[in-house]
Structure formats: C-alpha cells, structure tokens
Amino acid sequence: MTTMEQRRAATFVVPYIVAGVVLVALSFLLGWWIFLRGDTPFVVDSAWNAFVADLWNPVFSAFSHFMDFVGGGWMGVFAVPIAGAVGLVLLRRPWSAAYFLAAEAISAAGVQVLKHVFGRVRPEDILVVSDYGSYPSGHVANAATIAVAAVIIFPRLWVGIVGGAWVVLMAFSRTYLHAHWLSDTLGGALIGAGAALLVAAAFAVPLARERPAVSARGLARLSA
User: Fold this and answer.
1) How far is residue 107's CA from residue 103's CA, in Å, rounded to a whole number?
2) Which has the least CB within 10 A, 18, 133, 136, 139?
3) E runs forming strands in 22-180
4) Which pLDDT value is given to residue 220?
5) 101 burial level (CB within 10 Å; 0-12, 13-18, 19+)
6) CA distances from 194 to 89, 103, 198 (A)
7) Are 102 and 145 contacting, i.e. CB atoms less than 8 angstroms apart?
C-alpha cells in the first residue's frame, strides 16, 4: 500500500469517529430520556404497539419468529458473526473478518451496558422470551452493525439498500412480537451503527489495504 493510499484511508478515520460518537451519544441520550419518563411509554410507542397488534396474521407471525431466531440468541450472537468472518477469510479478506467480529462484539457489549443502565420494562403483551431490559433492541443493534459493516467492507449502493431493509424488517419483527417498544428499535439502530463506525476507524487503513488486492485478483481472473 502506497503512502498516498494510506493517507486516503486515514481520511476516513475522523468521519468514522465523529459519526460513531454522535450515534452512540444519541443512543445514550434517548435511553436517558426514556429513563426519566419511568414506565410511561412515548405516545408513538403505545400507538405503534396497538397498530402492530391489529396486524396479526400467520405470515407476519412466522416471519417475526424467524427473525427472532436469526437475529438473537446463539444464532445472532455467535453463529452469524462467526459464519460471516469465515466467509470473509475464504474471500481472502482477513482484516475485514477481524473488523466484522470486533464490530459485533463491541455492539453487543454496548447493548448490554445500555440495558443494565436504563433497565426499561418491556411491553406487557410480549410474545417471546427475552433477556433483561427492553432498551435498546439487541436484535436491531446487531442488524445495524451488520448493515454498516457490510457497506464499509463492500461499498456498493445495493449493499446499503439491502442492509437498510434488513434493519427495518428486524425492527418491525421486534415490535410485532411486542418484545420492544418502537423507540427501543431506534436506540438499537443507533448503538449498532455507531459501534460499527467506531470500530471501522481503528481498521480503516488495513481495510483499505485489502481492497486494491481484492480488485487486482478479480481483474486477473477476468483476464485469464
């Protein structure tokens, strides 16, 4: 990697840090606002909770339970991150694999910190078994971390669109199952995306070093 390429990669560090800090700070501020309100949900939380209750049908229910399984527990916390890292290693992107695992770990840790600091009560009509603390949504945080990390590793518009859709669908499924208030999903998206950006700042240079190598191998295969 040339000095110019290193400098170009370094220019992403400050924006990643600034954006990451802002998002994480917003997740804390939203959590604090919720904490100060006590057990009283926001008007939009109550309205959305009632709205999704009226949407019940077998398709939405099956989909939401599937998302519950994929996005959390041993599947979301261990299997998905490990599978993603293994896939990146097979693509000869070891630094990307390390970044992905680190982002997932930091995001999960941040979620647990917020859960235990604010200890929000979940909706009474919850349809699944969940851990302590409604705020923020760990499933949505995980989805946001994956989405942002994917865009950083594979900077393509379609990757961002698919990632954004994944986050929205995960948020819908969590509220549909009444596992979270709507504001919990916003907090999850904030902490998840913020964690991915902060970790990306630490990996900016090695990630940039991998991209030219991957592009060069792709061109070599096309010309062979």
Assistant:
1) 6
2) 18
3) none
4) 38
5) middle
6) 24, 10, 6
7) no
State the number of CA atoms in the 13 A half-sphere of 29 facing the CB.
Answer: 7
Question: How far, in Å, are 32, 41, 171, 178 from residue 52 at the CA level?
Answer: 26, 16, 12, 8
Closest CA to 170 of 150, 140, 199, 146: 140
More confident residue, 59 or 222: 59
- Burial of 185-207, coded b for 16+ CB within 10 Å and e otherwise, reads bbbbbbbbbbbbbbbbbbbbbeb
What predicted TM-score, i.e. pTM, was given to this entire model?
0.91
CA distance 34 to 62: 30
Cα–Cα distance for residue pair 123/116, rounded to 1 Å: 17
Q: What is the pLDDT of residues 156-188, one digit of tens each?
A: 999 999 999 999 999 999 999 999 999 999 999
Identity of the amino acid at 187: G
> Interior CA angle at 131 toward 130 and 136, to 5°?
95
pLDDT (tens digit per residue) in 90-107: 999 999 999 999 999 999
CA distance 23 to 195: 8
Q: Measure the CA dihedral 199/88/98/198, to 10°.
A: 0
